[in-house]
Amino acid sequence: MSAAPRILIVDDEAPARSRLRHLLADIAGEFPHHIVGEAGDGLAALELLAQHPADIALIDIRMPRMDGIELAQQLTGLPQAPAIVFVTAYDEFALKAFELAAADYLLKPARAPRLLDALRKAQRLIPGTGLLKALAPAARTRLRVVERGRVILVPVEEILYLRAEQKYITARTAEREYLIEEPLAQLEAEFAARFVRIHRNCLVALDVVTGVVRESEAADDSHVGEAGHWALCLKGIPERLPVSRRQWPQAKERLGL
Fold first, then answer.
1. Chain-centroid distance, C-alpha 194
2. According to DSSP H, which parts of the chain are helical?
3. pLDDT band at 126 (very low <50, low <70, confident <90, very high)
4. Cβ atoms within 10 Å of 145's Cβ, excluding its own
5. DSSP 77
6. Residue 162's closest CA among 73, 246, 234?
7. Mind listing the pLDDT tens digit for each residue in 42-71?
8. Quick one: CATH architecture of 142-255?
9. Could you give the CA distance from residue 225 to residue 199 in angstroms, rounded to a whole number?
10. What is the per-residue pLDDT across 7-48, written as a single tens digit (0 to 9) for each?
11. Are 251 and 244 in contact (CB under 8 A)?
């Protein structure tokens, strides 16, 4: 890379963040870099990354509000996920970390030579998006929404449907709509067990469908897809979602109709 890697430090303990800063300063001659900021937990890290992208994230695992494992899962939605180096006092998470395609896993107290080696491994992942996406990890339980600089985590189980509208995805719950900046195809692949595609721009949660109705502009609507179409009724909202002719056979099968 021509520019120095941008590094984010995520740890709930101020002394641990300070130690990483000092270690990074010690190896700056061998590994030029720029620290974009510090965060005390995963949620704060997501809010910071929304304003200041990073190439490498040094992440602790046990933290309040959102731990390092969920943070790593949430990073899958970023256009270019930073390479992850876990820095933790607990060795029992090592297997999970590598399942998430972490560049490296350091046990505290980290030493400068070991950190340097980890950063060089992480640098080889820049600017690729191999983190998490290549290994297709377990689906997230919450989706990240950024509203006016604040990160909101929406439980996937509360989402009724996901609909692409221009460059955004509308995630609809029974209470309100949220705008998500992730590709619909990526969401479909990650949450295939929960959602079924009913239109080229819409996924609907299988367990919220309460019925189907035939909507037609013609008097004789006995032939599916000729004069009219099927629409899904959803639990909790009056809105009906039309099913396209192409997607009807798959939707019908997934819904057990």
1. 16
2. 14-26, 42-51, 68-74, 94-99, 112-123, 184-190, 248-255
3. confident
4. 16
5. G
6. 234
7. 999 999 998 899 999 999 999 999 999 999
8. Beta Barrel (2.40)
9. 13
10. 999 999 999 999 999 999 999 999 999 999 999 999 999 999
11. no
Annotated domain spans of the chain: 6-123, 142-255
Confidence at residue 234, expressed as pLDDT on a 0 to 100 scale: 95
Q: Which token pair is 100?
A: 């998430």
How many beta carbons lie within 10 A of that of residue 206, not counting itself?
Answer: 14
Contact between residue 163 and residue 170 where contact means Cβ atoms under 8 Å apart: yes
Task: Say whether 27 sits in a helix, a strand or coil.
Answer: coil
The second-level CATH assignment, the architecture, of 6-123 is 3-Layer(aba) Sandwich (3.40)
Which amino acid makes up residue 188? E
Alpha-carbon distance of 140 to 209, in angstroms, equals 22
| Each residue's pLDDT tens digit, 66-120 | 999 999 988 866 777 899 999 999 888 777 777 777 889 999 999 999 999 999 9
With H, G, I as helix, E, B as strand and everything else as coil, classify residue 152: strand
User: Token pair for residue 118?
Assistant: 């980890």
| pTM, entire model | 0.70
As a whole number of angstroms, the distance between CA 31 and CA 77 comes to: 28
CA atoms in the 13 A half-sphere facing the CB of 2: 0
**Is 135 within 8 Å of 116 (Cβ atoms)?**
no
Q: Look at the block and give the residue holding tokens 């949660």.
A: 205
Measured CA to CA, the distance from residue 53 to residue 36 in angstroms comes to 8
Residue carrying the six token digits 């959102």: 66
